[in-house]
Amino acid sequence: MKENVLKNIPLFADIKDEILEKIFDLVQKRVYKRNNIILMEEDAGDTLFILSKGSVKITRLSDDGREVILSILGDGDFFGEMSIFDGESRSANVIALEDSEVFILKRGDFLDLLEKHPKIAIALLQEMAVRLRRSDQQIEGLSLSDAENRIAMSIIRLAEDLGVIKMGQVIINNLPFQQDIANMAGTSRETVSRMLNALERKGLIQRKGRKLIITNYDEFVREFG
Ligand code: CMP
């Protein structure tokens, strides 16, 4: 059934099938290749995006032109809500980290859904609270810790955002490139490379191609979280 594709979206977790069917009629599907720009900072924005497949990075440019990664979003996450609510231009760039698929919903239709289905509004507020907490942690982390700790904290964020937990291990199947991790942690690619090698030597992580396994996630969080 066509509404099934919306079932795995956390925003619509408590919504009945017949309503999902109506929502499905409102959305437009779009696909992006890896590295495609989906949204540009300063663009006017009146659409909500729901990521049905893939992952994206949320970025801004620092004054000296470096990319700063504010967050990474994965399957089922939404973005573009900020401009809808405050009427300002897009607050950040959104770039596909891998081939991705999105559903796009117009501002008016989205606001209408929130009015008619408070459960969607509550799920949205919950997610926005999670994002604010993470941003608070990121601010604390950037100002307090050294580069190695910031890299470890970025790996924990990636595990939370993109990882799959299996018997105490966390597997991140499509690890972003080392330059992306560096841009999350505010450090250089070389430092990330050195740190990943050191973590691997200590047995805390394993790497196979683009896959990264955190061998014992609880221990990793205890050490760096
Ligand atoms: P909007 O400002 O419309 O366009 C850019 C989007 O990036 C924004 O809506 C949010 O959906 C998303 N975004 C901006 N900042 C963050 C952040 N710190 N964490 C997660 N998502 C963000």
What does this structure look like?
With 225 residues, this protein is an alpha+beta fold. It has 2 domains: 3-139, Sandwich (Jelly Rolls), CATH 2.60.120; 146-224, Orthogonal Bundle (Arc Repressor Mutant, subunit A). The chain contains 9 helices and 12 strands. It has helices spanning 4-7, 17-26, 81-86, 107-116, 118-144, 147-162, 178-185, 189-201, 217-224; strands at residues 28-32, 37-39, 47-53, 56-61, 67-73, 78-79, 93-96, 100-106, 164-166, 169-172, 205-208, 211-214. A 4-stranded antiparallel sheet has the order 1-8-3-6. Helix 4 crosses helix 5, helix 6 (147-162) crosses helix 7 (178-185) and helix 7 crosses helix 8 (189-201). The termini are far apart. Adenosine-3',5'-cyclic-monophosphate (CMP) is lined by residues 39, 45, 58, 70-71, 79-83, 90-92, 94, 131, 135. Residues 39, 45, 58, 70-71, 79-83, 90-92, 94, 131, 135 line the site of adenosine-3',5'-cyclic-monophosphate.
Strand-helix topology:
Layout: H1 4-7, H2 17-26, E1 28-32, E2 37-39, E3 47-53, E4 56-61, E5 67-73, E6 78-79, H3 81-86, E7 93-96, E8 100-106, H4 107-116, H5 118-144, H6 147-162, E9 164-166, E10 169-172, H7 178-185, H8 189-201, E11 205-208, E12 211-214, H9 217-224
Antiparallel strand pairs: 1-8, 2-7, 3-6, 3-8, 4-5, 4-7, 9-10, 10-12, 11-12
The structure holds adenosine-3',5'-cyclic-monophosphate.
Adenosine-3',5'-cyclic-monophosphate is lined by residues 39, 45, 58, 70-71, 79-83, 90-92, 94, 131, 135.
